[in-house]
Amino acid sequence: xxxxxxxxxxxxxxxxxxxxxxxxxxxxxxxxxxxxxxxxxxxxxxxxxxxxxxxxxxxxxxxxxxxxxxxxxxxxxxxxxxxxxxxxxxxxxxxxxxxxxxxxxxxxxxx
Length: 111
Description:
Elements: H1 2-6, H2 9-21, H3 41-46, H4 54-59, E1 64-66, E2 70-73, E3 86-89, E4 96-97, E5 104-107
Parallel strand pairs: 1-5
Antiparallel strand pairs: 2-3, 4-5
């Protein structure tokens, strides 16, 4: 173990990646590197053209009208399925987008 403490961290990481990519079980890297060498999350999603990407699906949801200038997005009514609270300012005319879930919000003007 003392050998690793004095070894360059980049060398250790390179050795670990080489060791893991030699494994016959492609799940050993949790989808980061597969037998097709898919290296990005987007490429992994875009492989299957028969289904829509998550961004395409969320863009199909129309902007949600809310009262007030500030809205707190939680992603879902169920806290276990949501995300951290994101306070969204609705002062602009264009829909504001939650950075966590991609839902769009607009201020509902009652005038």
